[in-house]
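From the thread on structure requests for the teaching lab: each student submitted one protein with a one-line request. Submission from student K.M.:

"Model Phenylalanine--tRNA ligase beta subunit from Desulfamplus magnetovallimortis, tokens only."
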Amino acid sequence: MKVTISWLKDFTSADYTPAEMAERLTMAGLEVDSVSDRYAYLDNILVARVVQVEQHPDADKLSCCKVDVGGDKLLSIVCGAPNVREGLVVPCAMIGSALPGEILIKKSKLRGQISEGMLCSGAELNLDVSHSGIMELDPSFVPGTPLAEALGFSDHVLEVDLTPNRPDCLSVIGIAREVAAFSNPPAKLELPVSVMPEDNPSVASIHDNIAVDILDSDLCSRYTAGMLVDVKVGPSPFWLQDRLVAVGMTPINNIVDVTNYVMMETGQPLHAFDYDNIAGGRIEVRRAGADTTFKTLDGKDHALEPDMLMICDGQRPVGIAGVMGGENSEILPGTTRVLVESACFNPVSIRRTAKRSGINTDASHRFERGVDPEATMNVLKRAMLLMAEVSKATILNGLVDEHPVKHEPVKIDLAPCALNQRLGTDIGTGDMVTLLEAVGFQVNSSDSAKALDKSDCEEHLTVKVPSFRVDVSRPEDLSEEVARLWGYNRIETRFPDVPVRAKGPSLKIVMREEIRDIMTGMGFSEALNYSFNSASACDFMSLDADDKRRSVETILNPISEELSVMRTTLLPCLFDNMRRNNSQQIDTLKLFEVGKTFLATSKGSQPLENEMLAALWTGERTGISWHTKRSQCDFYDIKGVVESLFRAVGINGVSFEVADSAAYPYYRRGYAATMHYKGKLLGSIGEVNDDVLKNFSLRQAAFVFELDLDMMLSFYSHNTMGTTDPLPKFPSLSRDLTLILDTSVESGSVLADIEAFKQEQPLLEDVFIFDLYEGAPLAKGKKSLSLRVVYRSMEKTLKEKMVKNIHGDISRRIIEKYAAELPS
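Reply posted by the TA:
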């Protein structure tokens, strides 16, 4: 909201410098973003006296002038104004000046004659609308004086950043009310008085020309209208254009400019219709219903929805209520009869309409926050009088006022003692009354009430809220009013008397942060993605039709089509990250993300949230270096990351099982596994298959895993240090075991079964796979698995016979369980 100090002074006598006014408004909750001098461009415009005028030798309409600007020498300036003459005192733009319209004054030659500046008209300086000649100044002005100083021009523009709960300050009067309240005692707010002329017997009545019917009173509580005839549409007078330009608006014509001027002044939007385009002399305020499209003033066609509120004549819509008028009733140069609308619409309806239609106007901005329901008629009168003044029009007798829903004033019971307790202040009741009354509230105070002591907790005040404060409805709102007017900076900082005992973070937060540290420690970078993704992500992942991850929650107002549903898995986000990095020629990537997934439940219920960890590795196994050979990462690299992570958080003994292709269709067959611990599924891991890579436009192999952190939490051990074993004093003995197995036998199962023998054989220290082979000369469906078993005693050196017996026993039991064969 922009406002000029000169405009504010029309309504309040409070006298502050621009800096003081900006500070006080900011401290009262109306943050001032900027203060600018609207006449700063006149700094390099000086008063000048024309000393000599000669005809340009090569141009009939140009004059060569010698101009005194208070310096040591006269300037040579070529001028084309018809009124230039010797002795004339005029504004002169010096070299380097920047005039409105981004006109930069430079030293130049005009038809061969040097020009060292520019003699300006009032229009060129935005000080008048006349282009007929250069601006003639008072002959008493001294050459060389800055023009703004000579004319006494001083005005500043304040740009106020308002919060949505202060629609009353979307007007000059609203901000002037705040400024007046700063004074001590508060200054009086001088509001414009709009007295309509008495009925003229020679002038028709508006009721003979227009009838208004509100069909949807739930969306329009009041509709007022007035009418002018013999209107002469044309440019607005300079004072009106100047006011609009100063606050960032563009003048259009005298009728439309008055609607904008009054809106900025009062905060009440208005609209003017060409009456001759209103069919049937009738206005209906109703929902769009069967109407489907509408062309607005900006020439664009908009699709209508049945519940949008429209302003219609006897045949068709002529405006989207509270948003924008229609092209079919626009004020044009030939308009002679004007119907003026001032109404009060439902804020929720206007906001919904503006959002759906994609139209954001100054009018909708105000209506969707709430306008004063009691000011509708007074604002209409103000606009009618101004329109009649600037267009030489005649006002028809009478005004239309359809008011189906009356405004009920809000009354609040306020306990001063409770207010002080809420704020931690000791403000007297009389001061509270004074502060509230300064901004328009009515308080049932008396002289004795004002003198009551603040400690009287039985005292209560009844506060009547002014109709323009649509944001105030409860005692807490009044507390805010008193606090901001009294001064937030005057409220002392107080600390609680009871010592506060710090509470440590929850175990879930501890685990999440530890996992982040572990993953970054293993060289992974954390990705932060939106919790939304594309509705096609499930198709790209090749998920079955009955997969629970297809239960997506749809976003009502998505940022884009690519972010239209809540994600049910983290993997598509990481695939998108990989694609963007690959497009920037970053082919080696190690990413992880900790975040929530959302599974839709029954309609009207919140989605089921689950915290997950997902990671992706693609490209090189190690960084390119002279001391290592280049090699691509594979399934066992990402599996090693998962195993290290489990060990670090105290989850030991996780088993890896072959993943079901139907449940995990996005993994390459034979290169995927599910992870289990104590009978619980923790997640999955694998290589992404070619179809999914193609769907996400990925050009190289990718290995991923996804873990359920909520499930891991029940097994998480924060203190994973445990106890330490002493260093062994005696050597170990190793024995190898090579088995011929069916390819369907999981190597991890064999490994786990041998590990289980530790319960029976304490000498068994370790076992690991060192070779796996498939192919000739082995039969089809067979594989060779070689394991190394390590034995050690902590008490003595082992003998060959003892190890041989134990190793033989273990080998026989494994061979029997898996129907294995020994190589020949």
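TA comment: Residues 446-455 have pLDDT under 50 and may be disordered. The chain has 21 helices and 39 strands.
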